[in-house]
Amino acid sequence: xxxxxxxxxxxxxxxxxxxxxxxxxxxxxxxxxxxxxxxxxxxxxxxxxxxxxxxxxxxxxxxxxxxxxxxxxxxxxxxxxxxxxxxxxxxxxx
Length: 94
What we know:
Elements: H1 4-18, E1 27-30, H2 35-46, E2 51-57, H3 63-77, E3 80-85
Parallel strand pairs: 1-2, 2-3
């Protein structure tokens, strides 16, 4: 694949920059399904940490897509993953 070496080099550079910021021991990632939390999960795995992820399903219109993305990301990274449902809140107007 074209550019794979460049991507590997970039990944190694990023891990060098952030790897020391990952606390020792097991890590739990709030995995939203977006790029920033996916990167955090990847970095923790690449740094050799024991990683698990939790995704909150807020029940909003876009939630299904984000939860699906988080499930796929966790699967690709080979990490334990739980989806929890946010409590339903009632909005009152006066």
